[in-house]
Amino acid sequence: FPVVPEKEKEDIQLAKQYLENFYDFKEEKDSLFKSKNLDRMSKKIREMQSFFGLEVTGELNRRTLDMMKQPRCGIPDVRS
Amino acid sequence: YSTFPHSPRWKKDNVTYRILNYTPDMLQADVEEAIAKAFQLWSSVTPLRFTKLYSGQADIMISFASGFHGDFYSFDGPGGTLAHAYPPSSGIGGDAHFDEDENWTKFTTYNGYNLFLVAAHELGHSLGLGHSNVFGALMYPIYMARDTRNYRLPQDDIDGIQALYEPTQITPSKTPMRPKDCDPHLSFDAITTLRGEILFFKDIYVWRKSPYFSGIEHDTISSFWPSLAGGFDAAYEVDKKDRVIFFKDNQYWAVSGYRIEPGFPRPIQNLGFSTSVRKIDAAVHDPNTKKTYFFVGQKYWSFNENTQSMERGYPRKIAADFKGIGHRVDAALQRNGHFYFFHGSKQYEFDIKNKKLIHITKSYSWFNC
Hints:
Number of helices of chain B: 5
Strand order of the largest sheet of chain B: 2-1-3-5-4
Structural class of chain A: mainly alpha
Distance between the termini of chain A: 39 Å
Oligomer: heterodimer
Largest sheet of chain B: 5 strands, mixed
Helix content of chain A: 40-55%
Number of helices of chain A: 3
Helix content of chain B: 10-25%
Distance between the termini of chain B: 41 Å
Strand content of chain B: 25-35%
Radius of gyration of chain A: 13 Å
Number of strands of chain A: 1
């Protein structure tokens, strides 16, 4: 079954927050180009997937989301 | 492994820490034990030594807090982020914060987080390590529940910390190996009870027999009391005072749980020994008479815990009053109205009330061999 839209929104929000906290992701709120933010996010997802030895797809798949939901240390994995 | 940018590290071997507050999830003593054991992991492979402070500014300040707590990273309620710590530097540098919204536990359970494991990880940051991408490493950022009895620092973490600090300069041949539980030649330096458990000491090692868990736990002395060196001569507990006394050479220390009481060590002459007595072989306390017996060579002394003074008429020959114990005593233990005297690999069980030797067995008999 497809993911319900609300759940999908929640997951994307969680992923954004996770990447901001631990992978130095910065969303450009005022950017005219939505695709630019998606590209940046995809790049950070790749970085995160690579760190944890997941398949590097740049997509927010189930395994990546599951990893993001694990309890963890609050120190970033990468730094600016 | 990884280090922080510019690889910050402590430029000294003696690093201080202070526990600012305690989680209500655990006994205070258990928090102290978890933190001390976490430090011991790192000190076991580096020249670093950690000293606990009870007031003032320490290099590493440890605290429990919820939500926003005055730094760059707010906590997020149960789950998610469990803790964080800052790399070595002044001020907030080195400090470790634990999310009070988590349920902290002494052991690994399914409904909480093992404080020792999380603290050991955070203190890795406090010493300068970043996150490792090696699955199974202590510095891997994800909490992984695991059995922490006999926990050993994974090699990746050892490599990381030794890249920042020198490896411990110990010649392997000089480090005594822990004897096997059922080694027929096993002997002990000292034995004591502690809050219902029995601790057996040999060199730097402790065997812990507890009514609260099955089997024997293996630890090092420094994991309980980081500032005490191994090789105790004698130990005894006065349970009514929740106090254990340790002897090494001509000094003694008093501890209450994991806390070393202030004002120690003191010279054994404070107990009433003459300066000709250089060390105690063994000590045991009889809670019924409130007397403690000290064994030195072929003689023993009786110490009145109520008056804190040595009794008149002592020393006496051990063999005169403990018939069948015709030699020096390595260690002694009181349990259920019996004294257990240890000499080499043998244990002599003595009925205190009837003043009678009732059983001779191997020293390892407590280890279910």
